[in-house]
């Protein structure tokens, strides 16, 4: 209880609350601009963390993280262009509602569903993160290795496409984490003095997320112009309306079901928001078809059903806070945004994981309560700002946006160590990230591996030292049952796409 | 798809092989981890290359009717393959090149504001901005925003020339 009060005390600081509110507004704005997302925002923002207090920086990031997906729903509903990937399915029914003249209702359903999803996941975070952290304190080096492997395996195994591309991405990230002077050897430094401390994390993140995204944005815009379309156009005046009690009563089951799906998937590292929204959308479709099968006045799913907006929006916001459960309690980022969150914490000298609950309990509870507060304030702020956001975001030229993000990223990369080395690292990794995206290779495993790499390697050597060089220590059912369990689950994650492919080919 | 996967697989094989070569001479404890990662990259690259060749599209006999060669239905224009590449050649490639030139200019002591303004203007043109006033004002706004946020508000260092630093020193002291 004392810990919660400490967290509440930190959060109640007017500056912290101010940064949290700013983050919510900023997240709505950024999410609403197609092409920008929370990844890019965090990449641009991380260099600023150096000049801020930890509580201020983390409050701002929590605010942005919570509200970006709500912002993303605005262009999805108005233009059928999802502002963020998590609003992909919202665009189907949401835009159909707009074409039927129901844009205010669609926006209101999206906002309310997001708030409900976000609040449930905040409750999950409040109850589960401390429990999991207390359990994780019993972990030794063998369990830490297995946990790191589980984090990577879940990301690699759950992504679509070739598993070998995911493996290359993860191995590449682990290789980057091994750069520098370790174990009496300067590894992969190419005699460059700057590499002796390893590849600097912030320029690397800025490059992989910021520069890569800007290059893709410019490419898309140029191609769009050559097709004769003008990317990003001004919209007419639209506001959100308060949902009536009949609609709230109708949507409650969808909200609860989708929030539950989002929370469960959010806790699994690497599963991500997309999986949650697809499953919840599918569940909502089944229920809708059963319930309104014989109602001729009811729009079909995909043609403007309110459940088609409520389900993905509740699920994508439920993922947000629940993805912080493995991050805060185990030090394993649930997705790429929470990986950037870890980076910001590292910059402020906070090591995510069970020890964080012992050393910085006030900050932990501040973050947890900030998620709850951000979701509470998100509803009213979104209702008030939605009209203003719609008119403002489409007035901002995309060329200015791309240039601003690129220069902010590179200036931020310089500011970290006040050397051009950071700028070159950001540029190189921006080009590498762009190449990865063109080749259909995901960036998330790279960044998770970079963050987990050092921990996996040092824990591996410690575990081997403790067991006298016995590699079977990791799968010893008596000595390390948790490690064995985690490795079995990891193997399951990695094998699942292969089994799925084998089944598909057999069915053919 | 085939070319994309094949090129990536070859890059992975080359990178993995170079990594194995480099890490082979390291001290035993320092070698294991990076060596194993390079091996994973190399082996995964080989598997990916084999998969790419196995899934390579086979050339199909022509089934369509050429324009003006008969056929009664309305002709549908084929997608222009050059257009999908144009975004890269006219967009991301020159954009990336300008960023590299900007970094070189800053590295060689040209300061921050002037190269930033010039690069910003060129970047905006590449990204599709038209109209000289819009470009000049947009670029100036972006560079000044970066400068003010990083150098003046957050007191981080910027590679600016000493004369400009002296000029804005009183402003910086305000924060």
UniProtKB/TrEMBL annotation, chain A:
The keyword Transmembrane helix applies. Keywords: Membrane, Transmembrane, Transmembrane helix. The chain crosses the membrane at residues 15-36, 57-79, 115-137, 144-161, 167-184, 193-215, 260-281, 363-386, 481-499. Residues 17-448 form the DUF112 domain. InterPro entries: DUF112_TM. The keyword Membrane applies. This is DUF112 domain-containing protein. It comes from Devosia pacifica.
Automatic annotation (TrEMBL), chain B:
The keyword Transmembrane applies. Signal peptide: none annotated. The chain crosses the membrane at residues 33-53, 99-129, 135-154. The keyword Transmembrane applies. It holds the Pfam family TctB. Residues 8-159 form the DUF1468 domain. Keywords: Membrane, Transmembrane, Transmembrane helix. This is DUF1468 domain-containing protein. It comes from Devosia pacifica.
